[in-house]
Amino acid sequence: MALNEEQRAYKMGDDVLMQKADFLLKSMQRDAADFASRNVDGTRRNEIDDTNRQFKDLPTDPELLGLITTATEAKNATALELRKRISRVRSMAETLYGNSGKYKVFNFGELSLLPDTDLYRTAKRVVRVGTNLLTELASEGLATAMLNEMAALATDLDDNMDKVAEAEENRDIKTQERIRVGNRLWSLMVKYADIGKSLFEFTDEARYNDYVLTDGTSNSGGGNGPAPTPPPTV
């Protein structure tokens, strides 16, 4: 894990965090007169609203994964087509040259097992060697157009590999951004929920509980538990 990688400060899903922020805002608006005694007005409430809207506008992880999947599918389709084209040339070279040096210079390798980067380099090599031996391999059906198509597919594969890498990098960046904004939202929620609890502690259990964000002992510690039991009257 990178040293500067953000960690979630909240122990809930993003959807739950948004819902809790919406509910907190409604409670604060309802209790605006009480919050005014703590100098909390509409401008300060907007801190939560604006941050929550920013959080909601960020792409979700399933969306980002979908972009990676789409880019990967395009890359895999190109790679498959490229393997087919190389396989045809391999068959031509094997028929004409057997296991001689001219065949070996193609260095086809285990075509079905080649990683994408090796497949790209293999395609470039096959185009280069095939061009040099085109006059001889023409008897087996090799043509300049076939080599040009293979070269174009190799370029497409290289581009598609870059698109997958970009989609993966974008997911990492957006994930960190979502965590940063989520942490800022959570910090604001804790701040104003704690004020709300202080306003209604020992006076209004129902309203106090509206400012409970999680189960536990305090908002800042990951929870703030139920309303305290008022002391007995004597």
Protein model, in words:
Mean pLDDT is about 90; it is low at about 220-225 and about 230-234. This protein has nine helices and no strands. With about 230 residues, it is mostly helical. The protein has helices at about 15-30, 30-35, 40-55, 60-95, 100-105, 115-130, 135, 145-200, 205-210. The two termini are about 60 Å apart. The radius of gyration is 31 Å and the shape is rod-shaped. α3 (about 40-55) packs antiparallel against α8, α4 packs parallel to α6 and α4 runs antiparallel to α8 (about 145-200).
Topology:
Layout: H1 14-30, H2 32-36, H3 42-57, H4 61-97, H5 101-104, H6 116-132, H7 134-137, H8 144-200, H9 205-210
Poorly predicted residue ranges = 220-224, 229-234
For this structure, the quaternary state is single chain
What is the strand tally? 0
Rough outline: rod-shaped
Q: Total helix count?
A: 9
Provide the helix percentage: 55-70%
| Cα radius of gyration in angstroms | 31 Å
What's the main sheet like? none
